[in-house]
Amino acid sequence: MEVVIVADRQAAGELVGQAIADLLRRRPEAVLGLATGSTPLPVYADLARRCAAGEVTFAEARAFLLDEYVGLPADHPEAYRAFIARELEAHVDFPSGAVQGPDVRPTGADLLASCDDYEDAIRLAGGVDLQLLGIGTDGHIGFNEPGSSLASRTRLKTLTDQTRQDNARFFRSLDEVPRHVVTQGIGTILQARHLVLLAFGGEKAAAVARAVEGPVAAMVPASALQLHPHATVVVDEPAAGKFRQADYYRETFAHKPGWQGL
User: Fold this and answer.
1) Active site includes 75?
2) Fewest CB atoms within 10 A around its CB: which of 246, 256, 259, 261?
C-alpha cells in the first residue's frame, strides 16, 4: 500500500486526476470505478478541467458506480446515478450508456438478482481498472459497514445510524436518508486492478490510521486494502494526523521515481 500525504483537497484532485488521465492515455477503453459523496469531487473537477483542455478523453471508457441508495426516485438529486451525471458526466465526454450503476428498482428476490447481474456486468466489461474510494468515520468503504465480510459481493445492505447521520448533510433531514442501499462488496472492490482511497479532514484521521496501520479486520472494512497489490491512499494533512509512519510516507513518496506515477 502506498500512502501519499498532500497539502489539501485540490492537490489530491490534481494528483489522482493525473493518474486517471495517464491510465486513459495508456488504455482508452479503461473501466473506472466511481465513488460519490463530497470526497471525490476534487478529482471530478480536475478531470473536467483536463477534458475541456483536450488533455484527456473518456470517449472509449466505461464506468461503474460503487453503490446506490434504494428507495429514492431515479431523478432525486441525491441518487448516486444523478450525482455522477451532474458532477462528472455533464463535464466530460463519456459516450451515452457508458456509465452504469446498480439497478435498485426491483424489489424482493428480483433486487437480489439485480445485485448478481451487476457483478456479471462488471466481469463482462473486463473488470475495473481504477476504483475510487472514500472512507467513513467508522472505516467503511462503499457501504460495507464494520463487520462486513472481506469476501462480500454486491448486495443489499442496511445502513447504520452513524452512516445515515454522516450522509444527512446531503438531505433536508435525517429522516430522508434511505435506510437501504446496494453496494459493491469488499471482495468485489478488491478485484479492481488499482484502488485509490481518498480522505480529507481530521474527522477521518482515526479511521484512515486504523485502515492503513492497524490489523486487517472486518470491523475496519477499509483495512482490506492492505491485501491488495496496488492500493493507494491519498490524504490531506488533517486526515494524516494520526499516522505513526507519516514521515516515512512523506519520504518515500518524495523520492519515488518520477516515471512511476501512482
Assistant:
1) no
2) 259
- Catalytic residue status for 76: no
Distance CA(90)–CA(124), nearest Å, equals 26
Grid coordinates standing for 189? 472492490
- Tell me whether residue 117 is exposed, middle or buried, using C-beta atoms within 10 angstroms of its C-beta: 0 to 12, 13 to 18, 19 or more: middle
Q: Does 138 qualify as catalytic in the annotation?
A: yes
Q: Is 46 a residue of the active site?
A: no
Question: Looking at the whole model, is its pTM more than 0.90?
Answer: yes
Among 67, 68, 129, 166, the one annotated catalytic: 67
Domains and CATH numbers, the chain: 2-254 (3.40.50.1360)
Q: What confidence category does residue 193 fall into, taking pLDDT thresholds of 50, 70 and 90?
A: very high
Q: Reduced to 3 states, what is the DSSP secondary structure of residue 126?
A: coil
Beta-bridge partner residues of 198 = 234
Catalytic residue among 46, 89, 129, 140: 140
Give pLDDT tens digits for 66-78: 999 999 987 899 9
